Structure prediction request, 532 residues.
Amino acid sequence: MEKLSYERPAIRKMNAGLMNKFGARIENEPVTQIDGVPVSSLIRDFGSPLFVISEKQIRSNIQNAIRIFRTRYPLVQFAWSYKTNYLDAVCRIFHQEGSWAEVVSGFEYDKALANNVPGNRIIFNGPDKSGEDLLKAAKNNSLIHIDHLDELLMLIDIAGVHGLKPRVAIRVNMDTGIFPKWDRFGFNLENGQAWSAITRIMNDKNLQLSGLHCHIGTFVLSPSAYSAAALKLSELARDIKNKYGKAIEYLDLGGGFPSNNRLKGVYMPGSDTVPSLDQYADAITSALLGFGYRQDELPLLILETGRALIDDAGYLLGTVLTNKRLSDGRRATILDFGVNILFTSLWYDHKISPAQDSVQMTEDMVLYGPLCMNIDVIREGINMPVLEKGNHVVVHKVGAYNMTQWMQFITFRPNVVLVDSNMRTHIIRKSETIETVTMNESVPEQLKGKSS
Amino acid sequence: MKLKKNIATSEAGFVFNPGTGDSFSVNQTGAEILALIKQEVSPEEIIRILTEKFEVEADNAEKDLDDFISQLYTFNLIER
Prediction:
């Protein structure tokens, strides 16, 4: 007798609860390829887990952002936020598309130089610039964004001693109507510290006040906050012009635009809750154009957008290790990547897709990582087709922050592969080995030799 | 391992627990297994029957049965 085809036994409790008026669609379509390259061959060739970055998507994102802003305002410059993803290959794609570099440490500054970014196209932010960093940036004619008074005084000293004329801006923090207020960075506008710093700069014979900078927050979901920031910076620029006769060359509105990821605790997916880039562009450029600048004194608008330009160009591929049934009846699926390499799983409910055709029957489940730590939860609750050992999954929108904030823990960080615009694959960061991890360790003499 | 008293099952895959008022749906394989549990067939025998009737390896049938039975316990449908 011919055997019947098999479907794993399944039982589902029937709930007669209230209808969900939103009816959020569950997206469980398998994702079997990335930019035309099969997930199965990526994992076969480069291992699992594996970060994959789409060059095509990065280029499309930055080109789109430039178009959105330049069609509304004549003078726009993007600067790639290194901390969001400072893999050299990624940075160089942005630089090829015309982006300057925005760095926040000496390490990132040197990385930008090594990526052939001219010094005068590097914006140096952050509260931790050493004297050496400031000297180098001043010599390279970089845009130094001063964060605090000690840094300002140090730079005044350095410029005086070395006879340099550094181009500077101050970072201004202000109330833009959002919470939390980011008032720990830069000089506060409302309490007068920003104006004091400006006075100090204008009274110095060396420092050249070129711009004003702010960075009002991260994952800011309110375009009107940018409108408020653009207006307040413009008012400050006008006051500088009135008092010192000095026209400010640029306003840097920083970053903070959200990606389409879904923050934890938000019911609807990011695509339904996150304003479009056009709305942010409208808010900023309307404020600037409506402010009343003279046509020949319109400031350059600089944007340090990171997350919104890279998140959806990054994927994490992984493999199912096993399944378990938890004491409360929920299914638990254990994956081969943990929160240490998918750092953003602490902030987002990432969209995760099966990477192969699977049974239609879905189940609520918890997705765990492989770390021997109870906190290693990738998704606390997700409805997916049942995955079997060896099945692959694709985590979406992981391009921002994961490849800079990831931690080496218990095992090695994986390969990062770039799929270029011609569907060719390139390793842009090799997976670690035991040598990578131990190369900076040393063992005192008395601990060498055999263990007893 | 046996089905609790009063649990009503149908060949079409409907399960009803009059004690709690809960109802469940099972797929064809689940319905077959429930019918076997009702007859107090042992897990080893259920696996053998599944592998004879369906295109499935014994290892997979065992894993799936183990998972299915743990759900039946969670839903209070069977007892030891």
Q: What stands out?
A: The interface with chain A takes residues 15, 22-30, 32-33, 50, 52-56, 60, 64-65, 67-68, 70-72, 74-75 of chain B (CB under 8 Å). Residues 1 and 42 of chain B are 8 Å apart (CA to CA). The mean pLDDT of chain B is 91.
